[in-house]
Amino acid sequence: MNRRSDTWLAYFMILPVVAAVLAFVIGPTWDVGTLSLTSVVMGQERGFGTLSNFRALFADPVFPTVVKNTAIWILGGTILCVMTGLAVGMFLAIDSKMTMGLRAIILLPWVLPDVVTAMAWKWMLHGQVGVIGDYISRMGLTDGAISFLGNPDLVMWMLVIVLIWRKMPLVALILCAAIRSVPSEQLEAARMDGANGWHRFRFVVVPNIAFSLTAVTVISMIWITAEFTLPWVMTGGGPANSSQIMSTYIYQQSFQFFNWGVGSAMSVVNLVFLMTVVGLYLYINRRSWAAGGNS
Amino acid sequence: MGSVTLRNIRKSYGPVEVLHGIDLDVADGEFVVLVGPSGCGKSTLLRSLAGLETISAGDISIDDKVINGLEPKNRDIAMVFQNYALYPHMKVRENMAFSLKLNKVPKDEIESKVAKAAEILSLTAMLDRYPKQLSGGQRQRVAMGRAIVRDPKVFLFDEPLSNLDAKLRVQMRSEIKELHQRLGTTIVYVTHDQIEAMTMADKIVVMKDGHVEQIGAPLDLYDTPANLFVAGFIGSPSMNFMSCTAQGGKAVLSNGQVLGAAPAGLGEGQAFTAGVRPEHFVIGSGALDAPVTLVEPTGAEIQFTVDIAGDHVLITTRDRVTARLGDTLNLSVEPGKLHAFDPETGARLGGV
Known about the structure:
The structure holds two protein chains of two kinds. By secondary structure, chain A is mainly α. In chain A, about 75% of the residues lie in helices and about 5% in strands. The longest helix of chain A has about 35 residues, at about 1-35. Chain B has a six-stranded mixed sheet, with helices on both faces. Chain B contains eight helices and 20 strands. By secondary structure, chain B is α+β, with helices and mostly antiparallel strands. Chain B starts with a strand and ends with a strand. The interface of A and B includes residues 194, 208, 292 and 294 of A.
């Protein structure tokens, strides 16, 4: 009797969260899924159960560019973000007065709003009035100011650099915390065993922070995949779609061209990609010795 | 070969000096135990020897070669840590092979050395397990195996048994001692447990507040402690201390009763602290009357707490004495077993 009412109480307590998840996560996802399989013409639904949206998407001449740019954005962004984050985290893990101060102020890029960051960098990188191009040309490194965001070959990498500037600090802090929790006896034992700095990093530090490292890699990948404001405000996908990535293209197709079908098809592709990443993460973590705890 | 010489070792953290000039000679193959209460500097001394801490002054040499400035890996020393410090992501085999692998020893040689060490430590069946799949004692043995495979000149042990339960500690104690007898390598061993020190050491170094209090063989320290601190620290249950005055060759307590013969060499009327070990009282044959305040039979012996001149004094006997609470015991001290110490400096007084 008592037990049964406890069960009901438990269900009742989680009801608001379940309802919210159903209404705001499962529902919209379901809608996008069905929409991607529905043919839409002039805002009118014309038949369900067609792959015409996906066919249209793969026939779109911009789509290969979007895929290539998204690969640079997600893979390049994640790998560089984690690698610089690891290097900065190693540095911050050293105990000194300087690193203690730096640990606090390194989060500054992270607390700025996305739009502010994007606008600031957009103007700093501007072809005519940008302070960075001006500085480089005054040093005599280039003949004139470079249009960082106007050059189709450069623009993606510029976005990646700004992305790293913005996302790396938290990665660095998380990894710094993980590095600082590596048992000092293990490092000392390694020193006694004849390990140099690189050996200690490779054979003691990295295995000990493997759990944080995979987690932070996957989380950055998800953040970066979902990141929209930065590229949209800085370039809007331009020039001529040369910095168009999945998130900006979905937005453009859906909310500027009202091409719901193709937009939702692309969202489904995005979703499948993200689920693959998360699935991979869960698989690696389950297999990892770290998942069993360090006892 | 592996003789260690420490000369005037000093270590400061900023303005605070924690080692105040330590001198120590360890002969090749000797088992030396550094013992003392927490914060006495014994671990710091060991870590300085290992090269994990830098020293502020003095010379550390192994086989007459000064190694002050050498990196830990170049000192030919292996260390076993209190919490084992095994690499959790490596199997037992890889843990033991790690140092050899870093030193680019050929694979078949690594394999034979690991196999040999595993056999010595009965770890052969566990070579392919991870540390977390082992018990505390097994992990401790792996940590020792990691040291053995390197065949170093000196083994260092930093409180290796503190994380084990009491029963396992006794077992590992004898295993380490047997290992030492088998390998014959010099061992410097740090512990705060005086029983570990007594049972294992060839030579004990008692430390306190960054000073060496006494160096000697276990039984020498037990029989002739150099000062009040060593007398109280070595031995369990510990030595009883009572304030006495030397009068006519007798040690006279503050209430006028005679404790026993005072050691030779004390001046008439000199005040001193008398120390008597619990087992050195003889019951039933003395002039000293003491009321019993507590009786604790342990089986092998009986512990009596008695009141002597207002001090609680512990007495142990292997005889089946039937005295109860409130009874009075007639006590005397075995001849020559009464130690005298200076009440001010704590130094040993009188003839040996």
